């Protein structure tokens, strides 16, 4: 079981894909003990009901093309509150070490001499497809999966992905943060030889009551996803054939 949080420490809690019922037991216990919670916009809002009534909740959202708290400011707040002797919880969505910048916060705390603890969470990379009935691997169909960020398009100076390798890898492909660049991603995969007929699915708001699933082939999934807003997860590969748009979820 989770040891009690200590004053003057930071605990990074990963909240899972959306519904608070999908958080870990250790994550809930940390929320219940916190003096201060620094909360992302993708963290499960319902989890804040577990916080003490005297706990301070600080919104440190990073909204695409909207209000945003810089990572430097978040790091400074973590250190400031911990040095004031508070039990600090940093509450994130998904898993904070999968495109979540969690390690940056650990390093910032370490540099400041602030003790930290990491509580892993259920990553949206595997949980959101599962909530739509899609296994990222399936015996006799595919023996692996690759998770990539679609935050920047192919060809962008900061993009480090080898799309030619991804197109021939023979794995399921899970794209996070890829709504805005989905057409560029799919076009690049097709250009490098992945069949335009490859099944694909986009799952929006996975783990929430308004979860939506749209399916198409690789050539058509960007068009099928028009109107979808983040957060959304795209799955490309034969496993996407198993998508169940109306799969009932009861996790409360």
Descriptive report:
It is a single chain. This protein is α/β, with parallel strands linked by helices and 252 residues long. It folds into 2 domains: 9-119, Cobalt-precorrin-4 Transmethylase, domain 1 (3-Layer(aba) Sandwich), CATH 3.40.1010.10; 124-242, 2-Layer Sandwich (Methyltransferase, Cobalt-precorrin-4 Transmethylase, Domain 2). The chain has helices spanning 25-33, 71-83, 102-111, 124-131, 163-168, 182-191, 221-224, and strands spanning 9-14, 36-39, 56-59, 87-92, 116-119, 145-149, 172-176, 199-204, 212-217, 232-236. The longest helix is centred in the first third of the chain and has 13 residues, at 71-83. The relative contact order is 0.15. The model has no long low-confidence stretch (mean pLDDT 94).
Annotate the secondary structure layout.
Blueprint: E1 9-14, H1 25-33, E2 36-39, E3 56-59, H2 71-83, E4 87-92, H3 102-111, E5 116-119, H4 124-131, E6 145-149, H5 163-168, E7 172-176, H6 182-191, E8 199-204, E9 212-217, H7 221-224, E10 232-236
Parallel strand pairs: 1-4, 1-5, 2-3, 2-4, 6-7
Antiparallel strand pairs: 7-10, 8-9, 8-10
Helix pairs in contact: 2-3
- Total strand count, please? 10
CATH topology of the largest domain: Methyltransferase, Cobalt-precorrin-4 Transmethylase, Domain 2
Number of helices: 7
Return the string of H and E elements: EHEEHEHEHEHEHEEHE
What global shape is seen? elongated
**Major pleated sheet:** 5 strands, parallel
Average per-residue pLDDT, rounded, comes to 94
């Amino acid at each position: 079981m989770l040891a009690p949080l200590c004053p003057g420490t930071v605990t990074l809690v990963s909240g899972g894909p959306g519904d608070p019922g999908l958080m870990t037991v250790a994550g809930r216990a940390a929320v219940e003990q916190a003096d201060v919670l620094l909360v992302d916009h993708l963290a499960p809002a319902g989890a804040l009901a577990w916080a003490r009534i005297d706990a301070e909740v600080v919104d440190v959202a990073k909204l695409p093309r909207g209000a945003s708290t810089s990572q430097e400011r978040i790091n400074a707040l973590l250190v400031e509150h911990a040095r004031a002797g508070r039990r600090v919880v940093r509450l994130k969505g998904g898993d904070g070490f999968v495109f979540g910048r969690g390690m940056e916060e650990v390093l910032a705390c370490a540099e400041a001499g602030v003790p930290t603890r990491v509580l892993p969470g259920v990553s949206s990379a595997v949980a959101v497809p599962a909530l739509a009935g899609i296994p990222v691997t399936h015996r006799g169909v595919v023996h692996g999966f690759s998770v990539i960020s679609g935050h920047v398009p192919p060809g962008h100076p900061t993009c480090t992905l080898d799309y030619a390798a991804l197109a021939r890898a023979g794995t399921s492909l899970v794209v996070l943060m890829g709504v805005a660049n989905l057409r560029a991603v799919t076009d690049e995969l097709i250009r490098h030889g992945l069949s335009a007929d490859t099944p694909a699915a986009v799952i929006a708001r996975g783990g929430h009551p308004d979860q939506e699933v749209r399916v198409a082939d690789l050539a058509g999934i960007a068009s099928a996803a028009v109107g979808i807003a983040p957060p959304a997860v795209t799955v490309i590969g034969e496993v996407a054939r198993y998508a169940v748009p109306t799969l009932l979820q009861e996790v409360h």
